[in-house]
Amino acid sequence: MKMRKSRSLLLIAIASLLVLAVLIWGSFCPVVSSENPIGKSIGTSERSDGFRQMLVPIADVSGSDLLLDISENSTRHIQDSIVIPYTDFIMDGIFKSVPEITQILGGAGISRNDSIVIYGECMPCGGGPAPATYIYFMMKCLGHENIRVLDGTIEDWAAAGLPTTNESMTKPPANYTPMFTTDPMASYDYVKSGEANIVDARSFHTFNLSSIPEAVNIPSDNVLINGSIKNETALKEVFANLNKDKPVVVFTDTGIKASVVWFSLKMLGYNAKLYSWQDWLANQASEGISVET
């Protein structure tokens, strides 16, 4: 009887030591939150359904989507991508004419009925999604409905175990028929009218040198974290001082970096339009108004 009792006490002691060991080990192990899993950038892991309609996760890209790499001088692409550097659509800091742009798209085998996912960066500019959101803006002006931006880079794609290549996909030429709209664009007269909030998305330093009257400064970097667009909660904080019931016009020098702010506002449901500082200066000069730069 004593032997059985001693054995029971020994088993209880061993069990207690094991529990204590687990508790001590747990105190040294990092806790991985489901809201920020390892491998996800803080601020980008949560995307609402509304966001995903414009900013598509890698896992949601399907075989029916046409991938468009708009990177400048890229040598590595997602497999089966059409490659058109975003600079091909631009001349002297502005978009080429609609016939020229549609000829480029059609020549690459793209039609307005295609479901397109845009990705790519401007590495000489420091990376980031602004060139992709700028081409998204261009395509929206052409009336392209089924278009999204990839939520990630080619490095993220490869890290997910998905194929990449050094080759661009070649398709037979297509007829790209635009339904051009100026709705995403702001005109000089509209900017002057006072109907919209004006957001200067250039740097704080540049904003202080000169800006459009009544503009507020929200640098384009404010909507990014680790080179990706922030999540919905974080973006709402960035735009907290903007009246959502009033239209918003966003501008930078040419509009490229402003486009990522415009894109973020559109995902949040703002009535946003894109503009450029160059257009403002040109129109001010035509009116004989001198602007310090």
Kindly describe this structure.
- The chain has 293 residues and is of the alpha/beta class.
- Helix content is 34%, strand content 16%.
- The strands form five sheets. It has a five-stranded parallel beta sheet with strand order 1-8-7-2-4, with helices on one face. The protein has a four-stranded parallel beta sheet with strand order 11-10-14-15. Strands 3-9 form a two-stranded antiparallel sheet.
- Helix 4 (130-141) packs across helix 9 (256-267).
Salient structural properties:
alpha/beta; Oxidized Rhodanese, domain 1; 5-stranded parallel β-sheet; 4-stranded parallel β-sheet
Task: Give the number of DSSP strands.
Answer: 15
Assign the CATH architecture of the largest domain. Answer: 3-Layer(aba) Sandwich
Broad shape: globular
Characterize the biggest β-sheet: 5 strands, parallel
Percentage of β-strand residues: 15-25%
Number of helices: 10
Helical fraction equals 25-40%
Overall pLDDT score:
86
Q: Regarding CATH, which class of the largest domain?
A: Alpha Beta
Beginning-to-end CA distance, first to last residue: 96 Å
Query: Which series of helices and strands comes N to C?
Result: HHEEEEEEHEHEHEHEHEEEHEHEH
CATH superfamily assignment of the largest domain?
Rhodanese-like domain
Task: Tell me the strand order in the biggest sheet.
Answer: 1-8-7-2-4
Q: What name is given to the CATH topology of the largest domain? A: Oxidized Rhodanese, domain 1
Instruction: Tell me the structural class.
Output: alpha/beta
Uncertain runs are 1-43
What's the gyration radius in Å? 26 Å
Structural domain tally: 2
